[in-house]
Amino acid sequence: MSNLYIMRHGEAAPGMPDSERSLTKQGEMESRAMGTWLDNMLANDVRTTLRIVASPYRRAQQTAQWMATPLGCSVETLPIITPEDPLEPLIDWLQQEAAHTPCLLVSHMPLVGALVGRLVEGDMRASQPMPTATIATLEADIWAAGCATLKHWQSPRELLG
């Protein structure tokens, strides 16, 4: 079994171009709280092997850095996880790259909601609503449609009150 942590970036300010939008102070606070939560939640063996992979968009990169800091990890950029990217190349990537390595993906709606829906429910139309900085923890033997189990759902709202 391997673990996949799917995270939506923290709250971002409006603006154009979309790829350059930055986190708000609230988004930084959400991301920092989630980084602390994940650091406290992960077993040592998972923490030492965790890969953090983020969309190239500024707000996802900023969120991923807030996640990486308490974990002592670096952030990798994955160009195929921007908001409107199709799921199939990402699922292929997961099968190759996340089969035996725990991975935190930091991306955007609608991609993160659709990915959770596809991996857990197996339906192309399934999607989960994901508030900013929320993490869905999935577990699977293989990353394919309908093959994952949703193990945990954590929102920063529960941590910040």
Automatic annotation (TrEMBL):
SMART domains in the cross-refs: PGAM
Domain of life assignment: Bacteria
Alphabetical list of InterPro entries matching this protein: His_Pase_superF_clade-1, His_PPase_superfam, SixA
Pfam family, one: His_Phos_1
Protein name: Phosphohistidine phosphatase SixA
Gene: sixA
